[in-house]
Amino acid sequence: MLFIDFEASDFTGFPIEVGFSKVNKNKEVETHSKIIYYQGWLDDIARWNPSSEKIHNISKQQIINEGETPSIVMAWLNEQLGTGVVFSDNPYHDTSWLLELSNIARIEPTFLIHDMRIALSGSEIDHIATKQEVNMVAQHTHRAGDDSAELAFWYIMSMRNDGNVKRMYYENRTFIMRDL
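Now predict its structure.
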């Protein structure tokens, strides 16, 4: 199962960081993230909210120093996430930021973003873990990697003990869940 999260300069802003987490068949979580640097976005002062910077703790200087170009980040996402479905707790915003990244990079995404609630409704799910339970092992830090890991742990903690980790695909206009 795959989970994704974006951090942005503002709700109506631009993506500044993307992270994803993979849950393998042993229910282990692997997390990766990249800061996104595109000067055209940083020059758009109307779309940078200083209040958002205080939440995610990513400064413009950090973006300049550590960020990678949209084309590098988009190619990396496609390579890592493949052609399946990835899950988000905010698919509306995450999809809009993915599409903005894709547009600037001129690289189409190979994957779809879907609502986290779908990941928590499969046959492998026993109960929906509470936010308090999940926060005991993963904190919502407003950093893309950490926040995608939080979603991954939410999925794992909601599974039956004997449940198999799934991966969702979109084929012939149909969503299909398969065991890993």
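DSSP finds eight helices and seven strands in the chain.
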